[in-house]
Amino acid sequence: MQDTWSARADAAEEAVVSRHLRRLWALPGTTLGVVAWPAVRRERLFFSWHYWWQAHLLDCAVDALERDPTPRRRRRIVKLARSHRLRNLSGWTNNYYDDMAWLGIALERAQRMHFIDNRNAVQALESQLFDAWAPEAGGGIPWRKGSNFYNAPANGPAGIMLARTGKLWRAQATADW
Questions:
Q1: 166: phi > 0 → left, psi -120 to 50 → alpha, else beta; which?
Q2: Distance CA 127, CA 125 (A)
Q3: Going residue by residue through the chain (177 aa), what tens digit of pLDDT does each one get?
Q4: Is 34 exposed, middle or buried (0-12, 13-18, 19+ CB in 10 A)?
Q5: Phi, psi of 146 (to 5 degrees)
Q6: How many domains does the chain have?
Q7: CA nearest 98: which of 140, 136, 62?
Q8: Residue-wise over 106-117: b if at least 16 C-beta within 10 A, else e?
Q9: SS (H, E, C) the chain
Q10: Integer Cα distance of 58 and 116 in angstroms
Q11: 167: how many CB neighbours lie within 10 A of its CB?
Q12: CA distance 124 to 119
């Protein structure tokens, strides 16, 4: 049965790689996921930025490396992370705490499990999540910067990220919230 699931995972990975992964703006050493298939020119040029979608793509690439470690998969993760940073333009962060938490989870796991150096990114994302805690609102992390809307989709991954980076007391408070 394990062989069946591995074969399915390989087929899914190959479909994503062959249909969706492209260089960012023709820059060498870059890779991002095009969000549609078949992609139109605007999508291939990454005019619209899908931070959250790219964070999940990176997480899937880490899954693939854990399932079957190869140098090619490792290089893909490095390229995806580099490209995410380049395309985001403003550094590692954005205005949505759930997006940043998902990216942080993927980068932290790549670092912890496969020694892919993402320290600066993980630290920047962890800092944003830690500082977003709002005791004046009864705790929790808002959905986005400047918002007073608090939800589980932001606090769940933020709590995981904070726990994995050693901020256990804040992760516990997030879970309790």
A1: left
A2: 5
A3: 678 998 999 999 999 999 999 999 999 999 999 999 999 999 999 999 999 999 999 999 999 999 999 999 999 999 999 999 999 999 999 999 999 999 999 999 999 999 999 999 999 999 999 999 998 888 899 999 999 999 999 999 999 999 999 999 999 999 999
A4: middle
A5: 80, 5
A6: 1
A7: 140
A8: bbbbbbeeeebe
A9: CHHHHHHHHHHHHHHHHHHHEECCCCCCCCCEECCCCCCCHHHHCCCCCCHHHHHHHHHHHHHHHHHCCCHHHHHHHHHHHHHHHHHHCCCCCCCEHHHHHHHHHHHHHHHHHHCCCCHHHHHHHHHHHHHCCCHHHCCCCECECCCCCECHHHHHHHHHHHHHCCCHHHHHHHHHC
A10: 13
A11: 19
A12: 8
Domain of residue 157: give its range: 2-176
Burial of 32 (0-12, 13-18, 19+ CB in 10 A): buried
CA pair distance 155, 157, nearest whole angstrom: 6
Tokens at 60, concatenated: 């899937």
Residue written as tokens 């993760």?
Answer: 77
Using a cut of 0.85, tell me whether the model's pTM lies above it. yes
* CATH code for position 14: 1.50.10.20
